[in-house]
User: Fold these one by one.
Assistant:
Number 1:
Amino acid sequence: MSAFTDSSTHLGLPYIQPAQAQKHVTHNEGVRRLDALVHLAVLSATVTSPPASIEGARYLVPAAATGLWSGQPEGTLAIYEGGAWVFLMPHAGWLTFVQDTGTQLVFDGATWGAAGGGDMQNLDQVGVQTTADAVNRLAVASDAVLLTHAGAGHQVKVNKAALTDTASLLFQTGFSGRAEMGTTGTDDFGIKVSADGTTFTTALRTEAATGRVHLPGNDVRFDGPYCIGDRRPNITVSATWNLANTSGGNLQRLVDGTMGQHVWSNGTDQSGRHIQFDLVEPQQISEFRLQFSANHTTTIKTVIRAANDPTGPWLTLSAPVSWADMMSGGVVTLPATPLQPFAHYRIHAVSGIETNPPWFNGIEMATQG
């Protein structure tokens, strides 16, 4: 060495000087320093007042320390040796285990911080109690996963690159898919189910452009106080009924093929002009199809209402529909969504009332059941 110093660079261990007397004193001081710093572990980093003195006890001095630690810089290493507190300033890169918290800290040259934290951005994989892989780059094994707000609302976002890609939630049993919901291969929202994880059946699809809901399986089950059992919409209409007059009359039986008589009439009430159909027995009518000799251009809008007691409240089964919007090939299709069979139905005008009910030449009705 070019210039002989009194102590070592990193740990400040005292050197024995040439021709020094009582060399054992310097040697023993160096040994004590090594004993204090090698495999460094402190009792606490948060105790602010020096505790009862125990030989060899080590602490990191926190901010606002008191007593014999008062005035020491935050993060200083306090060591009780030979009946007195000795203070050492740490160097960048020092590590220590904190016993009362069970954590490991590293000194960065200014403060102590959690060891091993590092840069948490752009990690390749993260596994919590399980192993992540190249496909499942985030993997968590736990009883539950909590995503909470930061003071207001909270969104979970599943983003895909292109329309034909998939953004979905997949529910599995034994790592085999059983249900999937999301936008799979399209921007329409769908729910699919599977019994084997291989063949999936679409149970529901909602069009992204219109919000229209489709039940592709054509098989709906209602279980509740109003209706129990399978209800399969029958979209094959077997007959058309001409309305020969405007004052009311009889209609043939509905689309199930049996024959009977159903009465229709027109009238008004506090809700406006309507045409009422009184059925021989309750039916679940899923559609009314109104026939015209030419495309209808009127501005009339109607809703479908139903009741089992015509003197009581009428349940609205559809949103207002513009006939002009629903016209195709001289036929206006008016959808209804009954949850139970009804004996009485009304096509109820909410705007643009026609002057000559029944406003159309013929009618078809499709039933559920």
Number 2:
Amino acid sequence: MITRNTPSNTSVKKLRITLAGLLALTVVPLAAACGGSGSSGGPSITVGSKNFTEQVVLGELYAQVLEEEDFDVNRKLDLGNVTTLDQALQSGNLTMYPEYTGTSLVQALGEEDADYPSPQATYDAAEEGYESRDPAATLLAPVDYNNSYAITVPKDVAQEYDLETVEDLAGVSDELTLASFGECQENPACFPNVKDNYDVNFEEVTLVDSLGLRYQALKQGDAQAAIGFTTDAQLLSDDLVVLDEEKDIWPYYYAAPVIDQSYLDEHPRVADVVNPVSESLGVNDIRNLNGRVDLDNEDPADVAEDYLENNGFLE
């Protein structure tokens, strides 16, 4: 558990998915969560999120608990990648959004890597980096799970090529297609990290930013390996194999809300509202929430509301 003090004041192409597969996997209305504002008359706050399921769920959790405490919330969920969100935060178009500590260090704060010895050290470095910027931001309490990268292959591919580790995959990568995503390709800690440490040379790399479509690509045979996250609900399937990463190349990725420092100074109560929600979330909780959206096609807002009600955050 990471602790903190409460603040004072290889070619790349787009993957072609069949129309039927696309329709089947775009039922969940993530984009519908992009707008929306409360009218409580309390302090106004704009909550954002990146453009994948877990981020939208986290954004909804924070937005709803803030609304419960009479904040006037404007949602800008499913907004884009880390660059888009960080620019919006710095320009004042967002007040807060959840970001992963390793991602913060490399992609938002410009560090060469996020090679820190512990989750707490990673968190502390990210917090210090945000607080030293102008305009300054800071981190609220993190969640209680590490959402790191994972390379997954279908079970039949693992059996055909005798794959158990990323090292095994590297040896046959020139015969296989990898389904990746834009942010991973750009993040030195993600795909470039794999390439540097394992000398992979995939026959093709396809960019599939939608998490659900990335796993659908594995199911349809359009890709034989995919990069995802350890909290992906799809990894509960017996038809998928997560390859062991034996060199410990992944940084720590604990989600924590990044918030504008001036707003927090003016409204310190936001930390008291949001921190308990983050601290309640373990890996099984988030896998379940992700699964209800990605596998059961439930609305992220409904899933978030159920979690908050069941855990005593909403009356």
